[in-house]
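We were asked to recover a plausible sequence for a given structure. The inputs and outputs are reproduced exactly as logged, with field labels preserved.

PROBLEM: sequence recovery
POSITIONS: 171
GIVEN STRUCTURE:
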């Protein structure tokens, strides 16, 4: 069960045992404490790091990373299966909205064992990307993921991808 639901259930049980005059005050106090706890936990779980010109948001709880921004001036990049931050390995699972917005990158490759699952809408919006390899792990391409990427002419999709394929060299 999600931590947030457990906390809400505890709040409801707590309030049930107090008289009505104190419930509103107690509820307000509990919500303030819960919200403060929630913010602290969220701050501890997520960190933003930059490696080789790519900015990642890493989640300490599930050991995953999401690409949030590209500052690289390279024209060809390989996005690894995972990154190491501190002593922890984080698996890259998604490219967030506008991560490569107006990026000068021409080609993006992923290793065949990539765990990338999602490419969000506008991820490559107005970028200079020309070539893209979509690994077998990608199961969710959000609508408009490559909108206004006028130079994107070569898309290669892993033949092991269960959801996407090319037909007559068209996506």
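RECOVERED SEQUENCE:
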């Amino acid at each position: 069960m999600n931590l947030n639901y457990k906390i809400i259930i505890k709040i409801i049980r707590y309030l049930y045992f107090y008289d009505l005059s104190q419930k509103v005050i107690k509820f307000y106090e509990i919500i303030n404490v819960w919200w403060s706890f929630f913010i602290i936990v969220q701050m501890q779980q997520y960190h933003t790091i930059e490696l080789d010109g790519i900015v990642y948001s890493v989640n300490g709880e599930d050991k995953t990373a999401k690409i949030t921004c590209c500052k690289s001036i390279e024209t060809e990049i390989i996005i690894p299966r995972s990154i190491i931050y501190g002593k922890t390995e984080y698996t890259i699972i998604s490219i967030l909205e506008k991560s490569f917005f107006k990026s000068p990158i021409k080609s993006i490759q992923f290793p065949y064992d990539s765990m990338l699952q999602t490419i969000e809408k506008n991820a490559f919006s107005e970028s200079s990307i020309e070539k893209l390899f979509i690994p077998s792990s990608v199961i969710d391409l959000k609508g408009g993921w490559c909108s206004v990427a006028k130079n994107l002419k070569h898309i290669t999709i892993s033949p092991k991808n269960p959801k996407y394929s090319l037909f007559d060299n068209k996506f």
